């Protein structure tokens, strides 16, 4: 396609085709808030886009340019600036025509080109699945959003028009787009406070994904609307009269529930349509914030409030900036009434959200607050995407973040922190700071010590307790709810495991090379490169990590390095001793060196190590029965021994037979405690009237410590027999 140059501002074309009619409609809206020079730039963008899309048609048969102009009209109704409008008209040019980003930049400037590029899908992605490609596109869009929020506003308007006009699309594609809309785009609109767009996306998405359910609920709504109009008018008039009697200048409006939200409520509460629609919904609009609270008093005097169903989102706004008072009342005939009370300004902001930054920019700084909240959310998402392993993991984290039901808690200094419902101490700690989350060990809630998995509730004061030696635990992933906490824990564990594996791999390889009288640092760099090529590794760290994780035997790598020809197969002599010096184990190396649970070795025991692919080295007691078979494989095991500096507490299991009488276990427990040990677990194996056989898991320092505990227990008259379990 030849280069398209539209430098001057052409006049508006005569109205002959649908696209020209749409352009005239767009210009009419733009004249209400843009100057003529900016409108001329928009017209120039239209002519450029029309030429670029020339010969392209939508499934409906209309010219393709109708779609981007319709998107621009939606944005013009939000008073989007002229660069945003131009980007909307040109948003499919890079993706669907030969026009490049550079050409757009030359014609309309870098700002418009960057906006269009942010909305454009990645056309060529080396992905294994449609889901991965979709996830990568969303990830790209969020990165562009972080640079300019207009990217997502254009994308939401684009998705809204696509949803409005997908009648001729194949059913499977329609359902896939609707599912993506409900899972990603509608929640994003909600997160950015754009409730009007969100409701339209939810309704259209629900209709496309569940057409039969939509029709059934829609018919039920129409049927009940006529039956209930009288009661709605009665309630509305009663509320309006009470406001007038109190000299309050407030407007009352009944509102109809969104069909998608009716379905969601039926689904989540497991109730019938009748029960949902019994909640009549009204809004009261006031001029001042004080009037909102006075109006709340009026309606509470008119109808009885339902306990526990009042929410003050004016004092504590939602994460997307939404403000309103919510209350549920018992109205006439015993029907529940839902009432929202807000100022006119709050209503405008609740419908427009981040778009209010353009629509009401000149009125006050409320829109700036909403934009600040959106930018804060995007900063968190950027931090999440940096630590996400891939696009699918990022999408999982994003979905977690898009469906919050807020809980408000306080820091010890009185700062309010918002978290999704079900959040724990760990979620709170990571929200305060990543370093606080990584180092947390416990917390105080209202000055009482609580464990990390404690779920937070409204009004709690939370103080996190940290320690310099602490690090994230993989078990935290089982109960954290926020995307930030989940991604930070995964990122830390991934990097920690990787470094641990590299360090262990280096130790193992150096040990094997020393037995061959070779020093790793003295090996020629050319030989290292040759070995890496043969083993198909990109770097030495990658090879060391593989060794540390047990995926590659260090002895075989050492033999290959020592061979004259690194490409030759490694040969082992039957009588060759592969492990001349033992590897020193401290027991606290981390996840890549673990102690076997079958025999529970402790410092002082004779031990042996086995390579477990993907997990590193598993250390067993020398007498463990499970190790006998593995020892026959020459390269999968290695000699290890405890370091004299081994410290900490290690689990050891003992079998104890004692007289079954009152207080026996209490005596055992107090004796063990007096020996500076702790019981981690008790299992009753068998029990009769005379004897009880129990398995105890103790936390001990070493073999000597365990021997002293057993010696002390044997002196008790209730103890008949004690043995340590080694396999």
From TrEMBL:
Residues 64-163 form the HD domain. Its EC number is 3.1.7.2. It comes from the Bacteria. Residues 403-466 form the TGS domain. Gene3D superfamilies: 3.10.20.30, 3.30.70.260, Beta Polymerase, domain 2, Hypothetical protein af1432. Pathway: Purine metabolism; ppGpp biosynthesis; ppGpp from GDP: step 1/1. Residues 653-727 form the ACT domain. The keyword Hydrolase applies. Keywords: Hydrolase. InterPro entries: ACT-like_dom_sf (IPR045865), ACT_dom (IPR002912), Beta-grasp_dom_sf (IPR012675), HD/PDEase_dom (IPR003607), HD_domain (IPR006674), NT_sf (IPR043519), RelA/Spo_fam (IPR004811), RelA/SpoT_AH_RIS (IPR045600). It catalyses: guanosine 3',5'-bis(diphosphate) + H2O = GDP + diphosphate + H(+). Belongs to the relA/spoT family. In eubacteria ppGpp (guanosine 3'-diphosphate 5'-diphosphate) is a mediator of the stringent response that coordinates a variety of cellular activities in response to changes in nutritional abundance. This is guanosine-3',5'-bis(diphosphate) 3'-diphosphatase. It comes from Methylomonas fluvii.
């Amino acid at each position: 396609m030849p280069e398209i140059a539209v430098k001057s501002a052409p006049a508006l074309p005569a109205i002959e085709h649908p696209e020209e009619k749409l352009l005239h409609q767009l210009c009419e809206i733009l004249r209400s808030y843009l100057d003529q020079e900016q409108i001329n730039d928009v017209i120039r963008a239209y002519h450029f886009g029309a030429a670029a899309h020339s010969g392209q048609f939508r499934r409906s048969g209309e010219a393709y340019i109708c779609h981007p102009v319709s998107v621009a009209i939606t944005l013009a109704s939000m008073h989007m600036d002229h660069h945003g409008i131009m980007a909307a008209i040109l948003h499919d040019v890079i993706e669907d025509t030969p026009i490049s980003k550079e050409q757009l930049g030359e014609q309309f400037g870098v700002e418009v080109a960057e906006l269009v590029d942010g909305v454009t899908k990645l056309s060529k992605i080396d992905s294994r699945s449609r889901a991965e490609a979709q996830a990568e596109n969303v990830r790209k869009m969020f990165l562009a959003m972080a640079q300019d929020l207009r990217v997502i506003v254009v994308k939401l308007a684009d998705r809204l028009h696509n949803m409005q006009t997908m009648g001729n699309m194949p059913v499977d594609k329609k359902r896939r787009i609707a599912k993506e809309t409900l899972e990603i785009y509608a929640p994003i609109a909600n997160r950015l406070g754009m409730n009007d767009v969100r409701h339209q996306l939810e309704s259209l998405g629900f209709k496309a994904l569940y057409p039969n359910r939509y029709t059934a609920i829609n018919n039920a709504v129409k049927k009940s609307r006529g039956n209930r109009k009288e009661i709605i008018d009665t309630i509305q008039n009663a509320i309006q009269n009470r406001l007038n009697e109190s000299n309050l200048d407030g407007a009352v409006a009944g509102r109809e529930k969104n069909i998608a939200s009716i379905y969601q409520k039926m689904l989540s509460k497991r109730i019938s349509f009748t029960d949902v629609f019994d909640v009549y919904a009204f809004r009261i609009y006031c001029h001042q914030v004080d009037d909102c609270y006075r109006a709340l008093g009026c309606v509470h005097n008119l109808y009885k409030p339902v306990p526990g169903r009042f929410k003050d989102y004016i004092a504590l706004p939602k994460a997307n900036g939404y403000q309103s008072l919510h209350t549920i009342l018992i109205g006439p005939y015993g029907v529940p009434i839902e009432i929202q009370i807000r100022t006119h300004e709050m209503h405008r902001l609740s419908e427009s959200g981040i778009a209010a930054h353009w629509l009401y920019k000149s009125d006050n700084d409320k829109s700036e607050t909403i934009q600040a909240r959106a930018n804060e959310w995007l900063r968190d998402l950027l931090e999440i995407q940096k630590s996400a392993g891939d696009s699918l993991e990022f999408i999982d984290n994003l979905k977690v973040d898009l469906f919050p039901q807020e809980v408000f808690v306080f820091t010890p200094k009185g700062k309010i922190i918002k978290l999704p419902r079900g959040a724990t101490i760990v979620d709170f700690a990571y929200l305060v700071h990543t370093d606080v989350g990584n180092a947390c060990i416990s917390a105080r809630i209202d000055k009482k010590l609580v464990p990390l998995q404690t779920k937070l509730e409204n009004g709690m004061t939370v103080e996190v307790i940290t320690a310099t030696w602490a690090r994230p635990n993989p078990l935290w992933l089982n109960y954290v709810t926020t995307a930030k906490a989940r991604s930070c824990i995964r990122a830390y564990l991934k990097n920690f495991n990787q470094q641990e594996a590299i360090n262990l791999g280096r130790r193992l390889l150096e040990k094997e090379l020393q037995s061959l009288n070779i020093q790793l640092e003295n090996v020629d760099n050319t030989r290292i490169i040759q070995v890496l090529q043969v083993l198909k590794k990109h770097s030495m760290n990658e090879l060391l990590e593989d060794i540390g994780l047990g995926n590659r035997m260090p002895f075989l790598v050492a033999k290959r390095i020592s061979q004259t020809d690194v490409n030759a197969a490694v040969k082992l002599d039957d009588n060759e001793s592969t492990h001349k010096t033992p590897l020193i184990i401290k027991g606290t190396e981390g996840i890549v060196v673990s102690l076997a649970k079958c025999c529970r070795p402790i410092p002082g025991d004779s031990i042996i190590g086995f390579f477990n692919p993907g997990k590193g080295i598993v250390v067993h007691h020398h007498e463990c029965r499970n190790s006998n078979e593995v020892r026959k494989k020459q390269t999968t095991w290695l000699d290890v021994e405890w370091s004299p500096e081994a410290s900490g507490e290690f689990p050891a299991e003992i079998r104890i037979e004692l007289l079954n009488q009152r207080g026996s276990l209490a005596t055992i427990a107090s004796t063990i405690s007096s020996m500076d040990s702790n019981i981690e677990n008790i299992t009753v194996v068998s029990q009769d009237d005379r004897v009880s056989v129990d398995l105890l898991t103790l936390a001990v320092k070493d073999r000597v410590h365990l021997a002293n505990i057993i010696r002390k227990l044997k002196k008790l008259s209730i103890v008949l027999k004690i043995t340590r379990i080694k396999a």
